[in-house]
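Suppose you are handed a protein chain with no further information: no name, no annotation, nothing but its sequence. What can you learn? This example shows the usual starting point.
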Amino acid sequence: MDLGGRAGSSIAFVFPGQGSQYVGMGQDVYETSPAARRIFQQADDVLGINLSKLCFEGPEESLQDTINTQPAVLTVSIAFLEALRERWQSLGISVTPRFTAGHSLGQYSALVASGSLEFPEAVRLVRERGRLMKESGEAHPGGMAAIIGLEQATLERLCQRAQAHGVVCPANFNSPGQTVISGDLAALSAAMQLAVAEGARRVVQLAISIGAHSPLMQRAGEQFAEILARFGLRDARVPVISNVTAEALTRAEEIRADLAEQITRSVCWMQSVQAMVGDGVTSFAEIGPGQVLSGLIKRISREARVLNVGDLKSLERQAVLLDAIGHQPSGISPQPAD
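A reasonable first move is to predict its three-dimensional structure. Written in structure tokens, the prediction is:
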């Protein structure tokens, strides 16, 4: 049973980024799914490290190192995607999403799901991405902070004022009233103080030692563009939503340019979800560790149906649930997030 191509599909596959990792992630699906096990084994072979053991056993300090975190989250996300497809195949169904999308690092999982990148290429790329971002952070220390309760325009104005102390800018537009800012520590501190004075409900500095998605990553972006030029991206079979523009991308060269730019530009996640909903998406399947995106999506669109596939229990439930699409062509029955 083919459950439709892009034009008739109302579901999007979305993939988490850095911050969703935890020790033990993916071990249950590794132990039960041959398809997932192949993904972990590929990652270990390609990188020449025991990434699987790091995901399952830690130590946490090593897993939190961005050079390891990025390939680890990608690997777990694609392992669950392949396990899900394995279940669907056993049920005699196939599901083609309308779009794929991911938050920052998650965009690489989305590219694998869309057919633009093979998994071994993607895991090599994100390992290099993590290395370059780590090196840029060591050369230009920075930080990030979550600001809750201020409008985007207000926060952009505050960041402009704080730039008298250095680099600081919005890094992630996550949901209405929730934005992450990024930059030099002095400028970041000034922006945080201004946000408090402006009436922000909550201002929290994150446990991150780099100014991701800011001009502090300029060198990393330039070096990564050179690496990208050597990788064989293909046109996407399913459109991928750009973090930078919130537009659907399919051509290999526009995807390549977008990935290079993404390192220094803001992640427009709120705008991405709004664009997908506006183009007919009614259900989102978050595939990978954690449930961060599910919470954000519900705050962006209260009508959106959200599914989670990030552990064995949710994998088994969603495999059965998606079988029901054949009897409900217009969409998927509502399913609360775990």
